[in-house]
Amino acid sequence: MGFITVDGMRTHVLDEGSGPPVVLLHSGEYGASAETSWYDVVPALVEAGYRAVAPDWLGFGRTDKIVDFSDPTGRRLRHLAATIEALDVGSAAFVGNSMGGTYLARDLAAGGRYFRAEAAVVVSGGGFVPDNDARKAIVDYDLTEAGMARILRTVMHSPRLADDPGYVRWRYRLSLEPGAWQCAASARLRPPGAETGTSGGEFGKPDRTVYENIAVPTLLVAGADDPLRRPGYAEDIAARIPDVELLVYPECGHLPHIEHPERFRADLLSFLARRYRKGAVR
To answer: Which end of the chain, N or C, is less packed with Cβ atoms under 10 Å?
Structure first.
């Protein structure tokens, strides 16, 4: 765990292990970070002989809190790409959850401008993002522990972690980083007259990703009970990617790697060993 300066911005990165690199792209809800997303995954990758690289996106975790309102997604992607270059990662396997998975899929479908991926794992990412009641519940965050517990109860099928005071407090503390609320909240801002009928600029819009153009081996992981996606969305995406494997976890919401960590770790390592590069098990 440490910090580097990228384009003048203090950037927080988890960078552990050696061997074939695996870059982990976290989600975008309040309190999201590399640490809270991948705490169960990084040790497993290191133990299996991989280099695990998990940056905090610009505006999230402990990275500087900056939002480019003219091009928020592009700025995040350019900063992330510059971070990977500064770390001398080269080509890698990429794993993205939710926002991270959506950005990954879009970039690979557009030719891989930002990510030099040899393989991709998209977890609860891609597809149409409905502006439904569950989405409204997680964007309405009041910076309280009770509010954080409500977000976790919404995005996960099981209430186990939402009922764990220590886990809720951990996520809550990270959501209090100066500027973190404003950066996460910016995704729902909508200028007057634009995309009327939606509560946020990034939600409720058609998914125009050309999944047919994704040219690397891809694993899709979805929760069967994900409240933030329409039922069957993962099957629809999988039908359009040329080289794809699809896993749908039962009794699982939007965060399969957190709700079902043992299964996810096993599925991830199996996919990497078969379709990317084998690590050197220690």
So the answer is: C
Domain count, the chain: 1
Per DSSP, 23 falls in state E
Residue with structure tokens 């973190």? Answer: 180
pLDDT attached to residue 192: 67
Q: Is 152 exposed, middle or buried (0-12, 13-18, 19+ CB in 10 A)?
A: buried
Residue 32 lies in a domain: yes
Structure tokens at 257: 């790697």
Q: Does residue 113 lie within any of the structural domains?
A: yes
Q: What is the CATH number of the domain that holds 85?
A: 3.40.50.1820
63 falls within a domain: yes
What is the predicted pLDDT for the residue at 191? Answer: 65
The pLDDT, as a whole number, for residue 198 is 43
Q: What is the domain range of residue 241?
A: 2-129+205-275
- Radius of gyration of the chain measured on its C-alpha atoms: 17
- Count the neighbouring beta carbons within 10 Å of the beta carbon of residue 144: 11
